[in-house]
## 1
Amino acid sequence: MATLDPASPLPPERLYRPADIAALSFETTAELAPVGVLVDQPRAHAAIRFGTAMGVRGFNIFAIGANGARIQNSVRALLDDAARTRPKPPDWVYVNNFAVPYRPMAISLPPGRAPALDKAVHDLIDDVKVALPAVFESEDYQKRRSAIEQAIRGKNERGFNALRDKATAKGIAILRTPAGFALAPMKDGQVVPPADFNAWTAEQQQAVQTAIEELEKDLEETLRALPRFEREQRDAVRELDRETARGAIAQPMDECRTQFTDLPKVLEHIDAIQADILDNIPLFTTPQPPGEEAAAAALRLGGLFDRYEINVLVTNADGEPGAPVIEEVHPTLSNLVGRIEHLAVQGALVTNFRLIKAGSLHRANGGALMIDLRNLLTEPLSWAALKRALLRQEVVIEDAARFTGITTTVTLEPDPIPLDVKVVLFGDRMLYYTLAGLDPDIPQYFKVLADFDDDVDRSPASEAMIARLIGSIAAESGSKPLDRGGVGRVLEHAARLADDASKLTLLVESILDVVAEASYRAEQGGRAAVTRADVEQAIAQQRYRAARVEERGREMILRDIALIATSGSSVGQINGLSVLSLAGHSFGRPSRITARVRPGTGRIIDIEREVQLGGPLHSKGVLILSGFLAGRYAPDVPMSLYASLVFEQSYGGVDGDSASSAELYALLSALAEVPLRQDLAVTGSVDQHGTVQAIGGVNEKIEGYFDVCVARGLTGTQGVMIPASNVQHLMLRADVVEACAAGRFAIYPIGVIDQGIELLTGRAAGERGADGHYPDGSVNRLVEDRLALFAKVRQAFGRDASDPP
Amino acid sequence: MSAAGDVRHHRVILHLHQGASEQAIIRVAAELAQLLGLELHGVYLDDPALPELAAFPFVREFRLATGSWHALDRAQLVREQTMAADEARRLLDDTAAALGVARLFEVISGDPMNFIAASSQAGDIIVVSQPRLPAERLVHATAHLLEAVHGCAGSVMLVPQVPTRRRGPVAAVVCAESDPALLIASHIAIAAGEDLLLLVSGPPELARQAKQHARAAGVLPQRITVRAIADVTPDSVLDALGAGNERLVVLARGACGADDAAVSAYIVAARGVPVLVAEP
């Protein structure tokens, strides 16, 4: 028969794994080369490189990772690398659409040339503003215009004079009435009064009437011809003006065109400008009231000549090579797709093409756009607008107020701008999985998933890499450099944050917190570099600031309000361990677990579940105990046990199965009526075969019980039983390690339940012999005998109950 | 009041009638009154014979708005005349008030020619405007109005319907040392803060004397420009003005020949600025 290895305390070196940076030669982190991206993320990095290289529609990137991992920095660095090799995207400008002013036109230019167009057109208009007034004030123009007007006026005058002379000859006066003209008899240059006229002979009167009838026709014809003459004169003058203006602006127009001969769209627009200038010559030749231009500019209303200006929406004129990488930190609809601004003028909202503002999609066009998923989803309309832009592959400026009917003011419909952008959304996993579950479009728009690990395997190489990361963080945050001791302690803290001695966390934000505070401590101490002690103090202070609830809980135990025994032994009672997490601060706390047994129907009652304080995982753990008991002690017969388990003085919820081994020990103790040591605390889940399984928060649980024992005074027998598979996770506090090294505290790795029960009871667990029975006096024998007794009692009870009274 | 040479100007008389009640004209007259510190006297010439025409059954009115003939309605004619006079009064009052000019407005019924001849006196500056509509040149009264006012004792200013400029030098045609145009132009230039452009016809000595007189009147030397003209004809005046940007042309009565009305109409049509024919 094989014997069970007794549980023995772990040696101190198994309780804490110090950092190994021997291979990295440096005095302080200031000497270390910085790292721009999160290290050891081959899967995520490959995904981003693939996503950025894929030009097919829909291969946008979803980068996910834990909160605080700062994956956007890593993503940004990778995108920057990729962008450097891509060509610069074109510039975009909006210009006035002279034919349809409410639909401004978008024109694309080679990168960096939009400002040149802006300046060229601005200079052109300045030149025209000087050239046109000068030429129209010139003597030559005045003479030509005067000649045209004189010629037409002369023609008019001759017509007027002829008619007037004819009327005079016939004794008829032409009179002006308030609303028109009239003809009346005249004598000696005076209108004949009706009384005098009546005294004339009938022949005279008839002659006058006949003359008036005849002249009425002439007058009407003359008057009707006037608009034609006026139009003739207007047309002739306009043609002269156009001809004069065309000649005057020819040179500046040509100079402007010369700069853009390779850009047909620009040339078309310059032609449109010329046509508009020729149609609006008075704009340049009529002096504006002084101050009007300045006042308009101050109000940004746009001056009279703004119609010709260029609205440079996006330019890549800077010296940076490659495509842009833009991060939109506030992805409102207007920040994303651009906006059309309005100005309130005398109670009305007005706008023009110069008030079109670019959004981040415009600025990132041709490159990459990074957006925090949470920020995007919390902005109304933005998510849908982004998807629309990606689907249509063009940016349409959408007005949220108009969508929602808040305003119905006059606005613009600018040309959409073709979109070729790689959108990278980043956020935490839960949000991504939730969104992916709710929005079936995700696979259509974001085909590449870049899943960042939360931690990295611990090795000298990865520690060296994280050391460089720590140096980068210190430099970027303005913290002091860390010396070797400081770096080592931060690395060890990174392992503790990973909850695993063989891993290092990649939660940069948490590392930054410690580095920054340690730097502060060093500053207070007047040290040039951050030492191990500074880091230690920073970690301790972080814990202290958050430890009020933890300390109040411990105080309750020490004052015997919350009953936790740390010495002696009791039947059916054990110290379990749990972890509480409050706003990022986790701490362990011992809880008393008790078990009571009596004959019954084979049911184990989880009191926590009965009162709805237990979660499903806890209930699962308790049900596993039934499987263990039945399988080990009553494989062939019904189990006649009624047992109850409870977390004493637990008034909140309990979940997780990490106490199931402790519950099993308490149950076995109650059945065997063998007391359990109270100086030990237990954590670990158990399966139906009695194997103790790993749990989370092992470090916090050990330290929580240790602190209680220290407060009461370490006896040398106290300790914690943990699953053997959790040993690899141990990164315990220095004081715990020291106490264990001194033999004043112990950590016991437990592989199976029998190992644990022996340690807790001081009795052999016992193995079933060839006779099918456990050895006498062993815990298992005592349990089995008790269960057999319960079966008999139940049988007897059943018979008695069925007998007639 | 201010003096201009030997003539003391008393008032600016603005002749208003149907079709002449344009704000631009009223403003030019009001600004002249303001510059010279004179009272603006608006006279609306109401033709009482007009409503009587309704008694002629064969006399009809060609209405410009509808482009058709209509029988005359006496009551309507009276009403429309009254409305036109009221509108003229309102425009004059508003403009004069805005410029701080003392004004008087009266409606005169009767023959305009008789009134002009009877009411005008030396020291008046009579302001008349070009016809608003080209067709008004057909009207017998209009055709004779310019001739009538130029036959009056006072000075006459003819204003285009739409003045091309409201700022710029004051140009004066000078034919003699004591040319009245020189002094009144000097006073207007000083009051308006404008340069003085002297178009001098005569020996070089006259140019020097004209400049001296202008300086004596208070015009700064640097603000005086002198141009010689060979002879005093409307065309030579226009040639001398060239591409200038004058706001007003002043010449003495008879300076360009006997027909001052035709001369001023010619210059007004060519330059688009008012022409003031100064009384001797």
## 2
Amino acid sequence: VRSVPLAPLRLSALETGAAGVVVAIHDEDRVALADAGLREGSRVTVERRLPAGGPVLVELGAVRIALARVVAGRTLVVPVGPDAAGAPAPSAAAESPPIVRKVP
Amino acid sequence: VIPFAHRHRHRPTGTRDRGTDLPVIALVGRPNVGKSTVLARATGRFAETMNAPGSTVIAEHRLVHANGRTARLVDLPGTPSLHGSPAGEPFWGTLLRERPDAILVVVDAGDLVRHLPLVLAARDLGLPVVVAANLADEARRHGVHLDTGRLSQLLVAPVVETVARDPDDSGVRAAIALVVDLAHRRRAVREGTAPPTATAPASIYGTLELEIARTADRLRTERSLGAASVDAPYAALITDGLVSARGAATVAIGATDRADRLGIARAAVAERWAALAAPRDRSVGPRPLADRLARLATAPLPGLPVFALVTAGSLLAMIVVGGALSAVLTDAWTRFASPVIGAAVTALVPNAAIAEGLLWGLDGGLLAMLAVGIPYVLTFYLVLAALEDSGYLTSAAVLTDRMFNAVGLPGRAAIPILAATGCNVPAIYGTRILATRRERVLASFLIALTPCSAASAVVIAAIAPAAGVGAALGAFGLVALVAIAAGVGANRMVPGRQPPLVVELAPLRLPVPRAVAAKAWARFRTFAVMAAPVMVIGSMLLGWLWHLGLVRPAGALLEPVAELLGLPALAVVALGFGFLRKELALQLLVALAVVELGAGAADLGSFMTPGQLVVFAVVTAFSIPCVATIAAMAGELGGRTTALIAAGTIGIAVGVGAVLARLLGIA
């Protein structure tokens, strides 16, 4: 049995290979991260931290994203186990396929 | 909010094909999803939409045919969302200005979670949407099996799998046939020749749907009242019949909601639907080779040595291939074209002054194009296109990010700046890969300070014979140090700050030679159309100055500069001619020395001291960019910025030259 800390960590502090669910994003980074597909609720895995304060490389689903250390430093994540699913994002409301109807 | 200029029906730039009364299909998708390849496959010709902030949006217009009907396909810049600003304005403005009747959204079949939100946003506009699930082959290799029927059902829109890179793939044709049909139907409804039978989108955003409905009602009222308010641009979208009231509401909410609740809701829907329609088979074996290579490319070891090899190889290709092509073309031109042009101009133009100017322009100017344009620029474009299509550029950008941060640039600036050592002109165009105008200005400044192969030839040819190879290498070292210091200074002076790096790492792929050639040729054509007239006219003007004997008075005017640099006045005149072509500075220096001092002066060592030659070479390396570079820079950054950069480089050249002259004891 592995204990899972619930306290949020900076993404830059997450160990290489560890996964986390994003719980807070700095306002300044919100647009850039959303454009890259990263929002609160996204599950990321740290692939590598480049030396000398270089970018942090993370896996987000099938893609790899490089984040400046400053961005990773102000993005908070809750560490999760390797098989844990991402936390549900706010406003998630798509539980069933839509009903199609014709309008005149 | 940037108001949507709905009254401004501009004539689209970059239009290639007519057919302005035909239904319009907008081609949209996230960057690097293969949109341009889809366009090339659909129309048989490569095109590139410009993705550079601060530059004009070039929307490529092409005619597409399917089932006996024709529509106009408009390729738009890649964008992550409707509210992204890939070209300086919100994308929805760029999109709706084209008045689309249908939208073809290209998505990555293996990465629906990130691509579906754009599809949802397009669908929310109330326009017919067709989805091209591209890169389907890669998706399958990654264990993603797309159920197009299921996704079509969820989206209420046709979904077609495509592999646009594969010439045998029929998916693009099928997607085009579907979207042409939908665009014609929509146009018929718009023109009142068919009843509206649009399919209403179902409620998928939970509690946000209520806000969307309220906003739609408000915008409808706004439209009927004709009131001017913050809602006016969105109400105008309904008035113009561009989108549904719901569509206008989603645009308005997306533009004004700082919390981006609609974006979050779309992401949640995308995640859910991607899991339903494109489940990932996690039992797939080891990662594909390309994935493993991509990871190695971003590891410091072996990433950095590989980066050094790739850049050295690219540079070598430019120098060796470009140099060889330049020699062949120059030889062919001087053997065959020059005598013909000379004879024709002399025979047809009796006035000696006009004839000489024409000869400078038509012979010298076009020769300059052949000696620089085709060999170096085309070679660079081929190398750059291959690197881009391989997906390697983003890996290089990430690896070198920290190094370039000191001069206010991201790592990807390494590519154009290194390319500048071959030729500054394509390097200036290469700055389009940078994200902000500030980055492009700073990179262009550094490029202007980087000695191109012609300037390097001047440095070597001027210094090495008289002062030795060590002095020549020392001069290059000095130039590099000064350029770095100037870059650090410019980073502090140019307003704004560098946005922190957030970049998606492109997967590594084998470039398709035909696509690389088509992309390089399309870019080269743009360069040639812009640069050739500048080279010809600039050469003509200089020819007339020469013929009218205005060069010597110019020398007298430049006497104070000559004194400052410790150089003979003629050398400063020659430096001025480096404006046309860098290597001209040295050639003209020899010519002027021979004219003034006799044949013995062809050996520069007898005319100038080694110290003077070092100063001459260093100032040539830094001084004003050549006319082709200026023209390219003006086109990319505007006249004012170009003038500032040129003035900056002249100031640095004279300043460094003056200090060096004093250190060497020649002034």
